[in-house]
Automatic annotation (TrEMBL):
Keyword Nucleotide-binding listed: no
Protein name: Quinone oxidoreductase
UniProt xrefs under CDD domains: QOR2 (cd05286)
Pfam families per the UniProt record, alphabetical: ADH_N, ADH_zinc_N
Annotated Enoyl reductase (ER) domain residues: 11-322
Length: 324
C-alpha cells in the first residue's frame, strides 16, 4: 500500500484525506512512478471545490517529478531508475506513488532537481504556450500579466523579459511588487491602491498593450479589456476571483476589434511531439538561467489542507511544492 490524498465530496480543504491506496503493477504501456515532489496549483482548488467537476471519489494534483519504479509491458523508452516529470490527467499527483502511461511523462535532465520540475511543469508549460504560441511575444512588445507574483506570473515575467519585452504586472501588495520586479517585471502595479487600467495607459503613452494574460477572471475582466490596444488579444487562462461574466461580443467590437481566447494547456500539449518540444524549451530556459523557479513554500503532502488554505488566502508567492 501507498499513501495518497483522496476526497469523496467537493468543498473546502477539509474534504481532502491522507489515506492508504493500492498502487498495483503497471500494465501495457504504463510505468509506476515513485514521486519525490508534487506541485501545487490553483486548478487543484477548482477541482476540490467543484468549479471543475471530477468523478468522485478521486484524487487531486496535476504535476510531479520522481523516478521510474517499475515498467510495464511494451515500454521501451523508459527504464527503472529514470528521472521523470509530468503534468497529466486525470488528477492524482497527490500521492507517494502512482501508475501512469509512459507517454504522459518526459525525461528530466540531470541539471534540474525533482523539486524544480514538480514546481514548474504545469506553470512552466503554461508560460511556454502563452508566450510562444497563444501570442508570440517579440522584442519591443509591452505585455500585461495579471497576478505577476504568482507561480505562472513570475515565470512569464522572466521569460518575456528574456524575449525582449517590457513587462507590466499587477500584484496585491508592495511585498509582491518587489518580488515581481526582482523577476523581470518592469512596471509592477499594486492593484489594491492603483487603477491598473489607468497605469497601463500611462506606461504605454495611451496606446495600450497587444496582449493581456489574465488568470484572475471576474474581478479584472473589464479592466483587462480596457488595457488592450486595437486588435489586442485578451487571454483568459484562469478564474482565481471567479468565472467571467457572460460574454457580450460588443465589448470586444467597441474597444477596437479585440480578440478573445480561453486556452488550456492540454490542448496545446495533446500531441506527444508538442509535449516533448514544449518541455525541451522549458528545460532549456531553466538550465540556461534565463528563467528561474521560485519555490517559496514547501509543505508535507499530508498537510496539503494547510497549503490550500494559504493558496486561497493569497498568502503564497511563486511556486509551492508538496513533499510525499
Amino acid at each position: 500500500m501507498s499513501k495518497a490524498i483522496r476526497f469523496e465530496r467537493t468543498g473546502g480543504p477539509e474534504v481532502m484525506k491522507w489515506v492508504d491506496v493500492p498502487v498495483g503493477d503497471p500494465g501495457e504501456g504504463e510505468i509506476r512512478v515513485r514521486q519525490h515532489a508534487v506541485g501545487l496549483n490553483y486548478i487543484d482548488v477548482y477541482f476540490r471545490s467543484g468549479l471543475y467537476p471530477l468523478p468522485l471519489p478521486g484524487g487531486l494534483g496535476m504535476e510531479a517529478a520522481g523516478e521510474v519504479a517499475a515498467v510495464g509491458p511494451g515500454v521501451t523508452s523508459l527504464a527503472v531508475g529514470d528521472r521523470v516529470a509530468y503534468v497529466a490527467r486525470p488528477p492524482g499527483a497527490y500521492a507517494e506513488e502512482r501508475v501512469l502511461g509512459a507517454a504522459q511523462v518526459v525525461k528530466l535532465p540531470d541539471a534540474l532537481s525533482y523539486e524544480q520540475a514538480a514546481s514548474v511543469m504545469l506553470q512552466g508549460l503554461t508560460a511556454q504556450y502563452l508566450l510562444r504560441r497563444t501570442y508570440a511575444v517579440k522584442p519591443g512588445d509591452t505585455i500585461l500579466i495579471q497576478a505577476a507574483a504568482g507561480g505562472v506570473g513570475l515565470l512569464v515575467c522572466q521569460w518575456a523579459k528574456a524575449l525582449g519585452a517590457t513587462v507590466i504586472g499587477t500584484v496585491g501588495s508592495d511585498d509582491k511588487a518587489a518580488i515581481a520586479k526582482a523577476h523581470g517585471c518592469d512596471h509592477p502595479i499594486v492593484y489594491t491602491r492603483e487603477n491598473f487600467t489607468k497605469r497601463v495607459r500611462e506606461i504605454t503613452n495611451g496606446a495600450g498593450v497587444p496582449v493581456v494574460y489574465d488568470s484572475i477572471g471576474r474581478d479584472t475582466f473589464t479592466g483587462s479589456l480596457d488595457c488592450l490596444a486595437p486588435l489586442g488579444l485578451f487571454v483568459s487562462f484562469g478564474n482565481a476571483s471567479g468565472p467571467l461574466p457572460p460574454i457580450d461580443s460588443s465589448e470586444f467590437a467597441g474597444r477596437g476589434s479585440l480578440f478573445f481566447t480561453r486556452p488550456t494547456l492540454f490542448t496545446y500539449m495533446s500531441k506527444r511531439a508538442d509535449y516533448e518540444a514544449m518541455s525541451a524549451e522549458l528545460f532549456d530556459v531553466l538550465a540556461s538561467g534565463k528563467v528561474k523557479t521560485s519555490i517559496n513554500q514547501r509543505y508535507a503532502l499530508a498537510d496539503v489542507a494547510r497549503a490550500h488554505e494559504d493558496l486561497e488566502a493569497r498568502k503564497t508567492t511563486g511556486s509551492t511544492v508538496l513533499m510525499p
